[in-house]
């Protein structure tokens, strides 16, 4: 069964969020939502999430799942905000516990910050399956960018998060804590072993040399033939050398510090202080 996929592009963070729904019927899942955050003022905004909610409500859809491909480092998740308005279970990869352990230390979180993934409704393992109405979803563990990265294959559509990007842009960086270019190469082979006609929906787009429009949909066949980092059967050695050299030149994403603190809590802010005010930390020389 082929799901219908509607994309929402957030230009501020180059993130693509998706609503994936039954071709007939009303069940849907939301993948990788965005809570807008202005770093300079520390203010959140729900404009991006409200667009998704308006679509879902306008079409009369039932949100069964709110899925995260991983703990994002470049935008805040709107999962709890959306869940409050539409329902649905928040899911992420089982290895979220590894990410929580790493960043629990970086942000010097106290014992009230549980490192067991219990902030999420569902922790997925490799090989798990789930349903969106009549659609079947399969879970691939595809680490490398982060230890908890998942690819959700729903019908003939694979939501690959930050693994592969569009063929002319390549692949995701692997230099965050717990990342590994060798592991990403192996994860990508798993994605490329899906049937050639499998639709691939990427987690970000940054345009690419010679392309002035944003794009987010491609196929396994196109990736195998055209991906500039990994296509045409590039070897693991070639990939690792290219990826590590490129990562050494990249700065940190603008929103990495707020994003990690919020996303490792399933999109919740840290607990408010006794006056009800919420603060995010800015660790110095830690990342
Ligand atoms: Fe990411």
From TrEMBL:
What keywords would UniProt list here? Metal-binding
The signal sequence is none
Pfam hit, one: Lactamase_B
**Keyword Metal-binding (UniProt):** yes
In this protein, which residues make up the domain named Metallo-beta-lactamase?
Answer: 14-204
CDD domains documented for this protein: POD-like_MBL-fold
Name of the protein described by the UniProt record: MBL fold metallo-hydrolase
